[in-house]
Task: structure prediction
Amino acid sequence: MTMNSGQSADIAALFEAYEAERFDLHRRRLNEQMVRVLRTIGYDVGFCKGRGQYLYDRQGRRYLDLLSGFGVFALGRNHRTVRAALRSVIEADLPNLVQMDVSTLAGLLAERLLERVPHLDKVFFANSGAESVEAAVKFARAATGRSGIAYCSHAFHGLTYGALSLNGDETFRRGFEPLLPDSICVPFNDLGALDRALSSRRVAAFVVEPIQGKGVMLPDEDYLRGVQDICRRHETLFVADEIQTGIGRTGKFLACEHWGVEPDIVLLAKALSGGHVPIGAVLMRKWVHDKVFNRMDRAVVHGSTFGKNDLAMAAGIATLDVLKAERVIENAARMGDRLLRELSALQERYELLKDVRGKGLMIGVEFGSPSSFRLKASWNVLETAAKGLFCQLITIPLLKEHKILTQVAAHASHTIKLLPPLIIDAKDCEWITRAFDEVIADSHSAGAVWSLGKNLIENALRA
Ligand SMILES: Cc1ncc(COP(=O)(O)O)c(C=O)c1O
Result:
């Protein structure tokens, strides 16, 4: 163990002394079911170090992280510039969170964000993605005087009550109802349904992910333009949730730029944190902001104690600096094109591989029912046991044999999602393509992969 100075060395020592007990600690004191899940699928590695796009286990073996902490580590883990920025905040004795003052760093980060999204004028800072969604709902209602909020089937906007009310997946909602009234679900990619939903003129906002994270669902080419037109016609605010797609993930700063649309409100979080300090940002038109903060006695009508804290603001500023200095977004576009091309090419050889889609480094690899009789029987057995189980036959050997960490894109989904740090290089792309090639090849033979399937079925039945 390398000893640093002061308190950080204590924490490092604490981690080292107790890391092997992490599963036991969680089983006793936190979420026991998560421990069961990790043990069942063999994801109980116990990672000990993270740097860049890689994680390391106790033996120092290197893993390629295609989860990025659900999109947080755009710059990889522990980027030196972000760390230096955070250290400089701590060492500078800044007047953080005075509350009866305004934050210099928040002003600077707001300016820098709006330079990248020049059609918007104002920023509200929150502490997470879901908190940004909550703010957008409140701002939209206050600005329009309407109560309705429209959202899409399969949408994911976070799990607090307002955000959960806009969740298009029943499994997250069940047991927590009733949710926010006047939330209206419309199918993604269906402009007719959106037009009908908004025509009541009681809908304050339509909240949509430009590319849906659950399943990596891309919009039709004319969808977002149509959304913008319909929203304008019905005077409904167009809210783009770019919490996952933003900050370069898709090869542009905002995914909306691919389709040339200018939403009234843009939500950012995740990667803006530099992977270190939680943050959320709601970028919006001035008139929307001014409807909420419209009088002196309403100067604190919405906010949160830790919003705009110096560490979060510094992490955001450093992240934007690194994006530019290291041409991270350009790299995401290049590596994304390459991966899409190479993984798509596998489709010719593998009947179970149905689709490879995405933009930049947000990629979905979808599997589906095979045509040959030989594979159909095994596929059906798995599907009958638990829908979407097949993907585990890919993700488990990816981790075990190839040291690649991935996830299934949604509950009961046949899509595996790739969300790597945006700094991956050509060698990492080779690693990914080779690993997918080998694991998918195995899934087309009657070998070990399908016997793993048998174990999974037994576990699914037990659960
Ligand atoms: C598109 C989108 N919106 C909102 C959220 C919620 O963000 P948070 O988990 O920071 O609350 C997520 C998180 O996965 C997301 O992907």
Q: What stands out?
A: The first helix runs from residue 6 to 18.
